[in-house]
Each structure stands twice: as C-alpha cells, then as structure tokens.
Design brief:
Dna Topoisomerase Vi A Subunit, Chain: A, domain 2; 2 domains; 12 helices
Length: 290
C-alpha cells in the first residue's frame, strides 16, 4: 500500500501518541493498521470512533508493511520533489508524483553570451538545444550577456533567436520565470537589459506586470511588428475569459503594457506566443520619446 504525503502527516500525529478521528485515514489504510495491531480503535455511541497508535507495532508496520523508510521525511516532501527525494523516504518512489524538472532553469546562450555552472561553460546554443539546471544547482549559475530574454513557452524558447529582425549578438534566453526569492535576486542582479516574451492576452500581460516587473522594473515586454495582423487569427473566448484582468492592466503606466493592451482590446482576442512569425521582433523595443 502506498502512503501519500498527506497520509504521512496524519501517521506522524498518530505516532506522537495523539488520538485521532478514525475518518482521518482512508478506510483501506485504517483497516490495515488495525488488522496488524498497529492501532487501537475506541468506538463511540455516534459510530465515529477514534484511533491511536500502538507504539512498537506501529513503527514496525510503517517500516516493514507500508515500506516507509522515513515517515517524517515523507510528510515533509516538497511539491518540487524529485524521484531521488521520494526514494530516500519510501520504497514506493514511482507511485508518488515527482518531477525532476520542476523548479529548474532552462537556458540558452546566443552569440557571444556564455552560461557557466560550476566548471561547465556553454556558449552559442544552436536552435533546438539548451542547458537544463536542476533547482538545487541554480545557485551555481553565472551568465555573461548583454541581455536576458524570458520566454513562457518551450517551443518558442528553442527557436527564440529566429523571431528577431536581427539575431542577438550576446543574449541569454531563459524558459519560464518566478522560481522563488532566489530567482528574483538573480534577475535583479543581472547587469544587462531584460526582455520578456509572453502570450498576447490579458493573462500574459498580468504575468509580466506582477512577476517580471516586480523584480526588474526596467524590463520590456516584446511586441511583434505585426501584432494587430496576428491578432486577427486569435481567440475570442480567451479574451472574454480573461476580461476581468483588464481593469488592473489599464492602470499600468508601462509603455509596452499600454501598447500591447491597445492591440488586444481592439481585436478582443488573445494570441499564443507560438503564433509569432520569424523576423518580427526588435531585440529591445525603442524607448518612448520624451
């Protein structure tokens, strides 16, 4: 029988000697513990009843029957756990959801830019290639480049340089954003310019406003030359589902949010960034004239 993280938390409370409602555990797990003599059942007139662990037997059943190596470790597994993390606390490492990519960074170096992770240095990734850095190694990442470009979608990320009118000469391209406080500090310390390529809909602009600008107020939202034309082939339903976001965006003074929002509201459609055509982006949008 496989024990989930939430069930492990309940088992921890039982192990501490606490009486708990019998309903705190699913019937299958509760029945197993009672049959193995790992818990006592105290009945009540209402039929609800309580259960309590039998200390030594409980330890043995959790270890030998449920195959939990470390009950406390299982109860405290992060949502960003890897399979290695799960295997260290339970013999059922393949039955708990684990994603080794979650929280990691995917990066590409274009032109003269470089990515360094410890002693590894990579540069000039071709289209379709990138470097993946697992979350617990991200503190080792060092980059050299004139600009950092954030991209929401993996397909766009792997061909991002083709979208620009001129191939960037020194750019770091990064897939996904918002990996906690360390990421915010890392982004804030990047010495070059920041560009962001999101979806062209209210939600995409809200991510830029709430996540990216909060870490880098000087960041730019990249808008293709032909956005009004592309939006003709966009999705009405997406715009309507996200319409409630418009009021918050309308108060923004950021020039790129204003420009993209104007095109999106005029078309009353949303557009995925995957719909972008090659050669339609400036590396950084021109600054507004004073």
């Amino acid at each position: 029988m496989n024990v989930t993280v939430s069930q492990a938390k309940t088992l921890l409370r039982l192990r501490s000697g606490e009486w708990m409602p019998r309903s705190a555990l699913p019937s299958g797990l509760r029945t197993l513990l009672l049959e193995k003599g790992a818990c006592l059942l105290e009945s009540s007139a209402t039929g609800r009843g309580r259960i309590k662990a039998v200390e030594q037997t409980f330890y043995r059943v959790v270890r030998d029957v449920l195959k939990v190596k470390d009950l406390s470790g299982l109860a405290n597994l992060s949502s960003e756990r890897t399979r290695t993390d799960v295997a260290s606390v339970s013999a059922h490492s393949k039955t708990l959801r684990a994603n080794p990519l979650r929280g990691g960074w995917m990066l590409r170096a274009i032109g003269q830019a470089e990515i360094q992770v410890g002693s590894l240095i990579q540069a000039n990734h071709p289209v379709g290639c990138s470097l993946f850095v697992q979350k617990n190694e991200t503190s080792k990442v060092r980059v050299k480049g004139d600009c950092l470009l954030g991209v929401e979608n993996a397909d766009t990320f792997l061909r991002a340089e083709l979208l620009f009118r001129e191939i960037p000469t020194s750019a770091i391209i990064m897939l996904r954003w918002g990996w906690g406080e360390y990421w915010r500090e890392w982004l804030g310390a990047f010495p070059g310019s920041i560009g962001y390529l999101g979806d062209y809909d209210p939600a995409g602009l809200a991510i830029f406003q709430d996540v990216v600008l909060s870490a880098r107020p000087d960041a730019r939202f990249l808008i293709p030359d032909n956005l009004p034309e592309l939006l003709k082939h966009g999705d009405h339903s997406r715009f309507h589902k996200q319409e409630s976001i418009l009021k918050r965006l309308a108060s923004s003074t950021h020039p790129d949010i204003a420009a993209a929002l104007s095109a999106i509201t005029a078309a009353r459609k949303g557009l995925d960034q995957e719909a972008l055509t090659n050669g339609t982006l400036a590396l950084m949008p021109p600054e507004e004239a004073e």
